[in-house]
Design brief:
Elements lengths: L3 E6 L4 H12 L4 E8 L3 H10 L4 E4 L5 H7 L5 E4 L3 H6 L6 E4 L7 H9 L3 E4 L3 H17 L3 E3 L2 H10 L7 E8 L17 H4 L9 H9 L1 H14 L6 E5 L5 E7 L4 E5 L5 H9 L31 H11 L1 H19 L7 H12 L8 H18 L1
Parallel strand pairs: 1-2, 1-5, 2-3, 3-4, 5-6, 6-7, 8-9
Antiparallel strand pairs: 8-10, 10-11
Length: 382
């Protein structure tokens, strides 16, 4: 079997480290040829040594010298904001796993597609902010985007081999996050540790906060629109606290296909890296005899207004989605830094969106400009 050569963008984050665990468990299937990280140079160096990687990148150039001292002399290091894009276009890579957080993932994903690399996509922001551009580019270049998010992986698998004309709706499931059963009036009284204490997934701080506001689910709605070419009215959010059914697709004849797996991100990562093949793994599986119940709830848009904002932005157009994502990214950063209360996150996003004038057909340059503008506006509002 020929080894599939993988480059990982965001290797030190939650998805990146899980992906490397999958690769470590399957040395006969994968070879890591490139790694990129934002600033965690110590872990990046450990990964480069462990997997004998010859090309690595660090976005924060201030860590270049320290990183260089920690890796073998034969390792080539690129640094700076453009460094991940260099790894994304590596000639020797068969697939790029895009797992960088935030809008910093847009240019590397575009770079990978331009280099005609198939993309395992975990960086939802690249489609949220620039979905029209990224999806059209992938179509022109003949590049397949394989989703890594558990929900989108589920939908991707349910729709495989099906005629899209026969799809009635998508059920995008989610646990409801750490605040599902807590009254909204109590949100600002909760400590940060409680806000990021997700009931099922261990993730980074930013995405954990997004899961608490349910903005993450709203961003997933926008991502689903571009991955599956679905209008917003066909994308439904369904809260499913047990996180066993990771999403479902309903067809015109009333048939519903669902994707079930144990809540472990290594499972959709394993699927994406092996695509289009399916191989045996040693990861946990669902034991139906131990499951007491599977429950479902309709989300409250009043309690979690971020959901409504996401749908509204999607209907307004791509530029509004870019502003939504950027303003939220900055507002969450302000909350994590202790500068605003939790409920102020969505309030700030609302105010920035009100200042935005929709651009009907934004270019990539427009998207990057709006990203910068929205973040500056959000900072001014706290």
């Amino acid at each position: 079997m020929k080894l599939k050569r993988i480059a990982i963008l965001g290797s030190t984050g939650s998805i990146g480290t899980n992906a490397l665990d999958v690769i470590r468990r399957n040395p006969e299937k994968f070879n890591v040829v490139g790694l990129a990280a934002k600033g965690n140079y110590r872990l990046l160096a450990q990964q480069a040594r462990a997997f004998k990687v010859k090309r690595i990148a660090i976005s924060d150039a201030s860590h270049y010298s320290a990183l260089k001292r920690l890796v073998p002399s034969g390792v080539k290091i690129c640094s700076g904001v453009d460094a991940p894009s260099e790894i994304a276009a590596l000639k020797e890579a068969d697939m790029i796993l895009a797992a960088m957080g935030g809008t910093s993932s847009i240019l590397p994903v575009v770079s990978a597609i331009n280099a005609k690399k198939h993309v395992a996509l975990a960086s939802k922001e690249s489609l949220v902010s620039a979905g029209s551009i990224v999806s059209n580019l992938a179509r022109r270049k003949g590049v397949e985007i394989i989703p890594v998010d558990s929900e989108h992986s589920a939908i991707f698998q349910c729709m495989k081999g099906e005629d899209q004309r026969f799809v009635k709706k998508i059920f995008l499931t989610g646990t409801g996050g750490p605040l599902r059963s807590i009254k909204k009036s109590s949100f600002d009284k909760l400590p940060f540790s409680r806000i990021i204490n997700h009931p099922k997934w261990k993730m980074g701080r930013k995405i954990s906060v997004d899961s608490a506001t349910l903005m993450n689910k709203g961003l997933e709605v926008i991502e689903a629109k571009w991955l599956f070419d679905m209008p917003p009215e066909k994308i439904n959010i369904l809260l499913h606290p047990e996180a066993i059914i990771h999403s479902m697709v309903e067809f015109l004849d009333g048939t519903i296909l669902g994707n079930f797996f144990y809540p472990d991100m290594r499972i959709p990562i394993f699927y994406a890296l092996n695509y289009p093949m399916r191989y045996k793994n040693n990861l946990p599986t669902v034991d139906f005899f131990k499951i007491k119940s599977l429950t479902f709830e309709k989300p409250s848009f009043k309690k979690f207004p971020a959901l409504q904002l996401a749908y509204e932005s999607l209907r307004k157009g791509q530029s509004a989605c870019a502003v939504l994502n950027a303003a939220n990214e900055e507002a969450v950063s302000l909350y994590i830094d202790g500068k605003i209360k939790f409920t102020r996150i969505v309030d700030i996003v609302v105010k920035v969106l009100k200042k935005h004038r929709v651009i009907k057909k934004p270019t990539l340059k427009d998207i990057l400009r709006l990203d910068k503008w929205a973040k500056e506006e959000a900072r001014c509002l706290y």
